[in-house]
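Subject: Interface between my chains keeps coming out wrong

I've been trying for a while to get a sensible model of this assembly. When I model each chain on its own everything looks fine, but I need the whole thing in one frame so I can look at the contacts. Pasting all components below, labels as-is. Any help appreciated, I'm running out of ideas.
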Amino acid sequence: MNRIAVAAGDPAVDAKALDWPIELYRVLKQHDVRQMSYVPDAGHARLIELFRTDSDVVTNVLTTEEEGVAIAAGAWLGGQRSVLLVQSSGVGNCINMLSLPAIARFPLLMLVTMRGEWAEFNPWQAPMGRATEPALAAIGVRTMRADTPEDLVETVGSAATLAYGADQQVAVIIAQRLLGVKQW
Amino acid sequence: MVSPTVGTLDRRDVVARLLRDRDGLLVVTGLGSPSYDVHAAGDHDGNYYLWGAMGAAALVGLGLAQAMPDRKVLVVTGDGEQLMGLGGLATIAIAAPANLVVIVLDNGHYGETGMQMSHTGLGVDLASIARAAGFAEANIVTDQSGVDAVAQSIADRPLGPRFHVIKVKAENLPRSLPPRDAVHIKNRLRAHLGFDVA
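Reply #2:
Try treating it as a single job with all components included. I did that and got this:
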């Protein structure tokens, strides 16, 4: 874990800023998350690596995000908590599959990194970026947006309690501004 | 692409045989006829029936199998349902859950919507796709001795994940409807396994 936590010499890590991937990992571990599924994403890269190197958590790399919605339902049937890490474009892939947690009240916690909303260079990211929160709301998934690292850590803790404690379907929307501008 | 095999097996008989000595088996069913077939074989607290979320069945089975590595998990689904989750076969193969068996009752058609031909009916070989993805075993079953062999392998529990395409007749049998209340079925299965249902 330290290898990732320290990230010595990494110019992307500002020593004074809150190291939010580590904090999210800590919060999710406190909530006893035992399965994590993901489609590779730059914004989630460090959190993905923290889980992948944790032998107490089963991780699944997905071909498309909707698979993770189904895996999370199965995990809950078997008594385990699962978290799904996706990018905003992947939310569109999930819509019909989200009828499963919506109708069965399976706990669902998705962490969604945003594209297409802040200093975005790629126009193809804009339509789904715009549709992400309305689409989730339309299928019955609660969205909770975080614009700063401090907000994000607190929001994920709250969302985890709502999901695993109150059987809610929750997506934490991680602002693109928080993630920083992608270098081309 | 090869010429598709036309199934001759009776789907209800196949499912009844696979579940005859089910012991501690947990069963996830894909929407449509497979849910009716499993219900017709006898409702059970260890069943989770899907009525929608097409493409989910094998992946719900994956999540359950990963959460309960000491239990056997059987997914019973149809060719159309599995075709909608083709990428999931790659995900399951990579995850390699030793305790997961996926059964595709393959009639080569979409029975629920008017018997339109599916990709398997037109020649796509799901077992070859699963094998290429990396399932520990994947085969096509066309006769009763093959069904008996699958039932025996579930009991013997060889290393999975395993994938069996069972060729069944294309027919719409009288529906045997499982409960449609997904919350009830969820809580019933969790209670069966000893988890909180609150």
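Reply #3:
Confirming on my end. The radius of gyration of chain A is 15 Å.
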